[in-house]
Amino acid sequence: MKSVLEKNNYGKSSVRVLKVKRTGLIHDITEVSIDVQLKGDFDDVHLKGDNSKVLPTDTIKNTVYVLAKENPMNSIEEFCLYLGNYFLDNNIQISEVRIKAVEKIWKRINIHDSSEKEINQHHPHNHSFISPGNETRNCSLKISRDEYKIKSGLNNLLVLKTTNSGFEGFIKDKYTTLLETKDRIFSTSIKAEWKYFKYDIDFRSIHDTVRNLLLNTFAEHSSLSVQQTLYECGKKVTEQCPEVKEIFISMPNKHYLKFDLDRFDLDNFNEIFIPTDEPYGLIEGVVKNVKNGKEQ
Amino acid sequence: MKSVLEKNNYGKSSVRVLKVKRTGLIHDITEVSIDVQLKGDFDDVHLKGDNSKVLPTDTIKNTVYVLAKENPMNSIEEFCLYLGNYFLDNNIQISEVRIKAVEKIWKRINIHDSSEKEINQHHPHNHSFISPGNETRNCSLKISRDEYKIKSGLNNLLVLKTTNSGFEGFIKDKYTTLLETKDRIFSTSIKAEWKYFKYDIDFRSIHDTVRNLLLNTFAEHSSLSVQQTLYECGKKVTEQCPEVKEIFISMPNKHYLKFDLDRFDLDNFNEIFIPTDEPYGLIEGVVKNVKNGKEQ
Amino acid sequence: MKSVLEKNNYGKSSVRVLKVKRTGLIHDITEVSIDVQLKGDFDDVHLKGDNSKVLPTDTIKNTVYVLAKENPMNSIEEFCLYLGNYFLDNNIQISEVRIKAVEKIWKRINIHDSSEKEINQHHPHNHSFISPGNETRNCSLKISRDEYKIKSGLNNLLVLKTTNSGFEGFIKDKYTTLLETKDRIFSTSIKAEWKYFKYDIDFRSIHDTVRNLLLNTFAEHSSLSVQQTLYECGKKVTEQCPEVKEIFISMPNKHYLKFDLDRFDLDNFNEIFIPTDEPYGLIEGVVKNVKNGKEQ
Amino acid sequence: MKSVLEKNNYGKSSVRVLKVKRTGLIHDITEVSIDVQLKGDFDDVHLKGDNSKVLPTDTIKNTVYVLAKENPMNSIEEFCLYLGNYFLDNNIQISEVRIKAVEKIWKRINIHDSSEKEINQHHPHNHSFISPGNETRNCSLKISRDEYKIKSGLNNLLVLKTTNSGFEGFIKDKYTTLLETKDRIFSTSIKAEWKYFKYDIDFRSIHDTVRNLLLNTFAEHSSLSVQQTLYECGKKVTEQCPEVKEIFISMPNKHYLKFDLDRFDLDNFNEIFIPTDEPYGLIEGVVKNVKNGKEQ
């Protein structure tokens, strides 16, 4: 019997950075948490305890801060690429770098503004809602000496609609107790991740477009199933964002159970629901643009 | 030696309700998590295992849902009061009810809206920011057969300003290493809880006013310490909301540490910071309106 | 209208310390998270931005580490007292110090031990279980120039028994749907906090005794309600720990709902349950020793 | 431009089950959280809103509970296999099932036992510790009509050693500030996942063996790096568990930073440390048994 080291990687996770950019009195901020993982010629570290090729994770951390100083951080995608190239260019023993960035969302405070409600509801939807939860902008980079791949994404986009969602015509077997319904609450916390045809693009503007398409499609779609809405979202994104090659969408079905008021001789015309966290349905799919250009 | 039951209370926590109100095509939703605690004549439950005066916590839960059907839930304050009175009126053995409500924030989705950025930034502040985190609207009720008290509040209002905050002139002792600074990041997750002079008021509108005053004061105040800003916030609220008798404010100081770039022969003109979660300063205070009317 | 500063306090929270004590080859560790809050002559900080009496929270943090070096940390109670006295003795402007300590539980790894199961089950209970979750040892100190109070406690002691627990004879009203039961799952995550008659005692040994009494009483008691078991636990502690003056016990009722197998023509002889987190019953009480000695 | 559905899968997550087995007065319990994901002929659900081949996630949930009744649940691995085969056998449209199980750890309460300390420390290690955190037993199954794969694992095995760990001889570049050390705290929360040569084995006993080998190797190894200890752990497991084909180990380096007492003219002989959660090093590797038998 013989043991071999099959694979390995290492790095630093959760390196948190705030960058402040000052243009006269106007300040802009970017807060991001970075994970870096390295692959390369590290067998002797494991087998012999020889650390001579190890860039310490503490140095990885310092490097993230220094490069945050140097780079304008116009988008997390460009910053990840800048970081990835740095580690490859300065460390001959490294063959591949993977970087993930999670950006926290900060907006400007609106002062003199006692009317936030009206402003926010310029085109308010009748029955579709969003909860300002822990939404983040995400990206991931995989870079080697030959090529690189960038994926962009968002997470925790929490939405709910009170109508225009049904679920009927499904299989009934001996363990089925779910009733068919033409009208139910549909709530989900959208996670999405998309790939690009090419990378000389405006990542932030595409992010905003993808996010708006997801929100509008969720709000407007007459849903026969979570699956159908998920596909419609992916279809809209791939059709209306020509830069997006494919999009993965994950829609946990955050069930709102109708409270049984019949037991108390009361009606429940879709008025009173029990929000639940678990168990939850989980629906995932990938929609791809198959007509557009050559892949990068 | 003799053991006695000194105090006791019981109830149901985290009863989650979604209420949908339908006005034609326009739907409104309220999602709330309710905690109920009862005090009263419950000694025999503990001492003899006699449950004849126990309203089961499962029934408390059912009652919350039924009363959510009956009550319009115009504000969490009014709903708590409705609940509290119900339990007292229908259970002679109960002498006091305490109810807490935590409301989740849902906003309407704005469709046809690719310009959310501009709309949201109608009066954008130069250097003060808000993160749409897990902010909640809260209230608590304590009601007995003679009287009741309502407190309203908010939690997790996460803000950050990049300038107009300093900290100087403090005590230096043998364990002091902190440097004085005229210009630092100031970030906090505001928790506030306020009491009223009287209760025939518009709770939701007062909530919006208090929230705006907290945000504007945080953004505009030239801060010499967290304490000074906290007091200024409380002063503005008690002066400009005549209904508010006193306000408790808690400001955890979410430290953003300046990353030391000197070691690498680089300047850090308040550009690169390390966001940290712990340890954190915690500053708390109560500001009271002492001139206004008689207390309720 | 006039605003006044009614109350205030400040300090540092979540100061985390690991102390290693070395006795030859044997090392002992204590890991603790400390919260310090100060009250005193701090009006001018709030009203005038005058920081000349402010001990910065950063210095509070440094002081915790230095005093962790000086003090043997034989118990968190003694360490809190040492800290509290330090702040009072060295800061004339401080009138009261409150300190909380939460100790993480670390046990020695048993090597050469493939038989942990048998060793751990020396006196295994037939139907009562414990889950090694996030249990902590806690204490809190309140100290002024005249007196001090210490409370000790534990949190997150997660237990479950599969029988010897029922709930019958309760009120049935129009919203009751709960069925009476002679035999149900009883699971709770015990929180307890106790006060002492005097403080020249062995805190760690009393902690172990209280914890064992809570566990044994939970396991052995034939429960007619959570309330009755809670009281029995408090009674055993106050009767068998003469140092304990009174104990507060909180027992969230972590409901395990019987899954309805009837719908599928199957029996469920208390075999298959749905663990749930919310909503949960919450039962709390204080049991006091009224015969013993004079209070401190 | 044309959009196509590239991939899809759906199912139910976090289905929590408690099973009680009663052998006379002795009760055994298993608490597990199950995730099920299905792949198959589901294009029309997405493209046409045709649900006729959809087994609702609610039925998936019910099925988990019914099968928990039928199956002895001797190990989570056997239960997952039983579940996976059920879904394939009863649903012609399903081509692949993936199931994850996370088992919560429950131990029997030891009553009449005021001496837990001594019993637990039968072979206590001098300087290596374990914290009874949120450790879980895990497994994952991937099953199609042709074949299946089982992986077993554990998560959140939190350990710490106060000596016999160093880190020296690493790369120094312009951003390096880390000092070399012969003696540091080494703490990690081990995650491991292993594959088997064959499946007619005692999963629970192998789990215990792997866990003991990880603990003992961590405690005893003279560590020159996290990587070296990780490899040694994997080597011990693959050499001493002939059933294990390969093991993935993830070791987040939970840094304990030495508090700088020099500033206060005090020594810190590895006594006082700052526990930190982030950033953290993350070291991962796969060790494989390359000599043993044929793969399944």
Structural summary, described in words:
Four copies of one chain form a homotetramer. Chain A is of the alpha+beta class. Chain A has two domains: 8-108, GTP cyclohydrolase I, C-terminal domain/NADPH-dependent 7-cyano-7-deazaguanine reductase, N-terminal domain (GTP Cyclohydrolase I, domain 2), CATH 3.30.1130; 123-296, Urate Oxidase, CATH 3.10.270.10. Helices cover 25% and strands 41% of the residues of chain A. Chain A is built from six helices and twelve strands. Chain A has helices at residues 43-48, 57-70, 76-90, 116-120, 203-220, 226-240; strands at residues 3-23, 26-40, 94-104, 107-110, 124-131, 136-144, 148-161, 186-196, 244-253, 256-258, 272-275, 280-289. In chain A, the strands form two sheets. In chain A, strands 1, 2, 3, 5, 6, 7, 8, 9 and 12 form a nine-stranded antiparallel β-sheet that branches. A two-stranded antiparallel ribbon of chain A has the order 10-11. The longest helix of chain A has 18 residues, at 203-220. The first copy, chain A, is globular, with a radius of gyration of 24 Å. The two termini of chain A are 44 Å apart. The model of chain A is unreliable at 114-121 (pLDDT under 50). Chains in contact: A-B, A-C, A-D, B-C, B-D, C-D. Chains A and D meet through strand 1, helix 1, helix 2, helix 6 and strand 9 of A and strand 1, helix 1, helix 2, helix 6 and strand 9 of D. Strand 4 of chain C pairs antiparallel with strand 5 (124-131) of chain D.
